[in-house]
């Protein structure tokens, strides 16, 4: 598979990590290393390897083992698992890597039958489990992955369900049900009612998946456009979209599921209209997605505070492939152009100063060097201040510490990608600690100096009241007692010194 070289490398690194976390004993993948494999994660990685590996023959044995153990013999029971299993088996068949085509065809038929059984004919969508409300996410997922293998009535019904579930603001929530229905569903878990109710509101993952599904099935173009507009106007300050934490009940037991909103949203927007690659929000989201690749493992995190997961890595690789295909249509060096433009436009990864209509740009190294220089100068000035009258010392030192912290705030905000609140809070917490340490050191030093001065004074007084160890020449023997001690003559020694 070819593509933009920089993006191709990101995918290759991610593929190596996926191979490294394969469980050879259970022949599959879990959502994290050392987690027991499951059907969904195994299916997602199989699809990623088939779709993105340069040399599929290198992984043939591994894919055959996983297909046999995790997919053909799947014992899945929920909608999303069967959707992914069916999709992965179809990809395995298309890649011609499984030797027993008869068993493979039988497994594909079984998986598609399970997906069809879980379809809710009355509502037109798919629930997580039978008897539960239909969900936007799993209905959209079925259309995205299996639209060419489902009956037209199901595709039409699912598209109609998604169109009707769109919120007035143009986005989609997890489901489109009333408050009374939510209370009924969660009556055995009243603490979850408020959180479940909030999932009716639009979120990035549901909106992206619904808009992508409708776009791929050529349904409701007006609603797709509204969904795209919602995504473009609800991005994070750092770029991208927040993770959506889905919550629900399975057989009356609560469950949660994280959706990699940024990966889904980028993919959806570029499928809807490839010209979105020029939109500032999409460019910022692409840069954010690239930053989420873990430096150590090269797997992908769904957010900056998450661990690298197999499913997040697969989602990201699909988005990267869409970005690469989109850029190749325009010009091979478009990625470099967009990256440089983004850095200049959004001040991310760099520090900038604007003055008189001019923008001065500093990279991370220059920003760090400038911050260190200003800090050193501030510390030197503080040292000089202690030669001034005491009333000015503390106030001036505190002001200089505050000034020295300003470039560090900009360094954290720019190159280190912190928010203003984080940057200011972190820097001035450290500044406060430094001022506190200086105060403590100053107080201790002052006390020690006073104690030392007092000892010197006492020592001088003591020496002034006692004769020297060796008697001077003017001391006559008659003035010395029988034991060699000077007699009390009432003479002040200081008078003769």
Question: Can you tell me about this structure?
Answer:
The protein has 497 residues and is mainly α. The protein has two domains: 5-346, Glycosyltransferase; 364-459, no CATH class. It is 58% helix and 6% strand. The protein has 18 helices and eight strands. The protein has a two-stranded antiparallel sheet. The chain has a two-stranded antiparallel ribbon with strand order 3-4. The chain has a two-stranded antiparallel sheet with strand order 5-6. A hairpin with a 6-residue loop joins strand 1 (126-127) and strand 2. The radius of gyration is 36 Å and the shape is elongated.
Query: Main sheet, how many strands, which sense, barrel?
Result: 2 strands, antiparallel
What is the count of structural domains?
A: 2
Number of strands: 8
Indicate the radius of gyration in whole angstroms. 36 Å
User: Helix share of residues?
Assistant: 55-70%
- Order of strands in the sheet with the most strands? 1-2
Query: What distance lies between the first and last C-alpha atoms, to the nearest angstrom?
Result: 99 Å
The succession of helices and strands, N to C, reads HHHHHEEHHHHHHEEHHEEHHEEHHH
Low-confidence stretches: 346-350, 469-497
Principal-axis shape: elongated
Binned strand content: 5-15%
Which fold name fills CATH's third level, the topology of the largest domain?
Answer: Glycosyltransferase
> CATH class of the largest domain, anyone?
Mainly Alpha
Structural class: mainly alpha
Integer average pLDDT? 82
CATH architecture of the largest domain: Alpha/alpha barrel
Supply the number of helical segments: 18
């Amino acid at each position: 598979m070819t593509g933009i070289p920089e993006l191709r490398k990101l995918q290759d690194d991610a593929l190596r990590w996926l191979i490294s976390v394969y469980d050879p004993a259970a022949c599959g993948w879990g959502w994290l290393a050392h987690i027991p494999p499951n059907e969904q994660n195994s299916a997602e990685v199989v699809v990623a390897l088939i779709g993105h590996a340069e040399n599929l023959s290198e992984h043939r044995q591994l894919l055959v083992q996983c297909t046999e153990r995790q997919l053909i013999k799947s014992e899945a029971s929920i909608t999303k698992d069967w959707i992914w299993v069916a999709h992965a088996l179809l990809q395995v068949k298309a890649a011609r890597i499984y030797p027993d085509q008869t068993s493979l065809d039988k497994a594909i038929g079984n998986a598609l039958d399970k997906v069809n059984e879980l379809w809710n004919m009355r509502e037109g969508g798919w629930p997580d489990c039978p008897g539960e409300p239909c969900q936007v996410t799993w209905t959209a997922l079925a259309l995205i992955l299996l639209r060419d293998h489902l009956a037209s009535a199901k595709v039409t019904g699912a598209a109609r369900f998604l169109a009707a579930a769109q919120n007035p603001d143009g986005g989609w929530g997890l489901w489109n049900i009333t408050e009374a229905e939510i209370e009924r569903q969660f009556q055995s878990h009243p603490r979850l009612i408020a959180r479940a109710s909030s999932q009716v509101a639009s979120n990035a993952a549901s909106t992206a998946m619904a808009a992508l599904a409708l776009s791929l099935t050529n349904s409701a173009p007006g609603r797709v456009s509204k969904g795209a507009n919602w995504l473009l106007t609800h991005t994070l300050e750092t770029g991208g979209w927040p993770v959506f934490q889905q919550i629900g009940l399975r057989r009356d037991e609560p469950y949660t599921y994280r959706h990699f909103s940024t990966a889904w949203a980028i993919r959806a927007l570029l499928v809807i209209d490839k010209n979105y690659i020029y939109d500032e929000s999409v460019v910022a989201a692409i840069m954010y997605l690239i930053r989420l690749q873990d430096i150590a493992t090269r797997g992908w995190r769904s957010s900056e505070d998450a661990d690298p997961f197999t499913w997040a890595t697969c989602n990201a690789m699909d988005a990267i492939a869409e970005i690469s295909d989109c850029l190749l249509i325009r010009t091979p060096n478009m990625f470099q152009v967009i990256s440089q433009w983004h850095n200049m436009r959004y001040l991310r990864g760099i520090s900038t100063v604007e003055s008189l209509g001019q923008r001065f740009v500093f990279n991370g190294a220059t920003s760090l060097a400038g911050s260190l220089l200003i800090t050193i100068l501030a510390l030197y000035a503080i040292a000089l201040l202690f030669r001034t009258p005491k009333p000015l010392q503390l106030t001036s030192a505190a002001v200089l510490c505050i000034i020295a912290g300003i470039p560090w705030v900009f360094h954290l905000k720019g190159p280190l990608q912190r928010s203003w609140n984080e940057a200011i809070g972190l820097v001035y917490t450290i500044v406060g600690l430094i001022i506190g340490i200086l105060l403590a050191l100053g107080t201790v030093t002052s006390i020690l100096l006073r104690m030392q001065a007092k000892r010197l004074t006492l020592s001088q007084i003591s020496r002034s009241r006692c004769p020297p160890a060796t008697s001077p020449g003017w001391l006559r023997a008659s003035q010395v007692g029988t034991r060699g001690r000077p007699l009390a003559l009432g003479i002040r020694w200081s008078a003769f010194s």
